[in-house]
């Protein structure tokens, strides 16, 4: 099992769930309203640094990770200007 972590910045945070479900991932958890800074600048929800990040987690079988990440990369490239989707994959142990 692998932990797939997605960070979405843009005006449509529900887009992440739609993307995951389109690619066969129906189990995930999302947290909206995240703030922080990255290569493209700050997102603080303020007038100076508008925007926020939605973070989504999903546990994915190891043999599905490569196809899932490839599909997410295509989805990220197709996002409208100003929207961003970043993906990280982490090792995990699934206990029950």
Can you walk through the features of this model?
- This protein has 96 residues and is α+β, with helices and mostly antiparallel strands.
- It has one domain: 2-Layer Sandwich (Alpha-Beta Plaits), CATH 3.30.70.
- Helix content is 22%, strand content 38%.
- It has a four-stranded antiparallel β-sheet, covered by helices on one side. Strands 3-4 form a two-stranded antiparallel ribbon.
- The mean pLDDT is 89.
CATH class: Alpha Beta
* CATH fold-level label: Alpha-Beta Plaits
Distance between the termini: 12 Å
Q: Strand percentage, roughly?
A: 35-45%
Model regions low in confidence, pLDDT < 50 over at least 5 residues: none
- The CATH architecture is 2-Layer Sandwich
User: Please, what is the oligomeric state?
Assistant: single chain
Structural class: alpha+beta
Q: What share of the residues lie within helices?
A: 10-25%
The geometry reads as: globular
Radius of gyration: 14 Å
Order of SSEs, N→C?
EHEEEEHE
Number of strands: 6
Largest sheet: 4 strands, antiparallel
* Separate helix tally: 2
Strand order of the largest sheet: 2-5-1-6
Mean pLDDT: 89
């Amino acid at each position: 099992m692998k932990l797939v972590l997605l960070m979405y910045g843009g005006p449509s945070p529900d887009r992440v769930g739609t993307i995951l479900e389109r690619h066969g991932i129906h189990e995930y958890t999302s947290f909206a309203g995240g703030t922080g800074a990255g290569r493209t600048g700050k997102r603080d929800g303020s007038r100076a640094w508008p925007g926020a990040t939605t973070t989504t987690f999903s546990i994915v079988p190891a043999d599905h990770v490569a196809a899932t990440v490839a599909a997410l990369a295509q989805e990220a490239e197709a996002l409208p200007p100003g929207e961003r989707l970043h993906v990280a994959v982490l090792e995990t142990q699934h206990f029950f």
